[in-house]
Amino acid sequence: MTVPASGSKVCGTGDVWPCVLRCYQASLATRLLTSGEERGDMGGMMGTAGTAWAWIVLWIVLGVALLVTGGVVAARALATRRDAASSPVRAGEPPGLQEARAALRMRYANGEISREDYLQGKVELED
Length: 127
Description:
Elements: H1 17-33, H2 36-39, H3 49-86, H4 95-109, H5 115-126
Helix pairs in contact: 4-5
């Protein structure tokens, strides 16, 4: 592009592009030096650029909190299931009775007593 039809030079030169570049630089400087509210920007869905970092940090913190909470719940569920499976306790059963049953099973497993003795001991412990 060159000089306009009226013969006057734009921005003091024969070419328009340096003037356009200067105008763009001035516009850019104005945008950088003024806030979004002064320019009339609404900021978009999550606010202006200054609050975008706050939203990012908030979502990261919420995600970590969700992962930690899920881990604690899973650990408790696994621990509860393991405890329930390892020690079946009958209602109103004295702890010595469990030990007697365990000793009877061990003696039978080691071959110290016969099957008949084991079954008789088991019946006697159930009464």
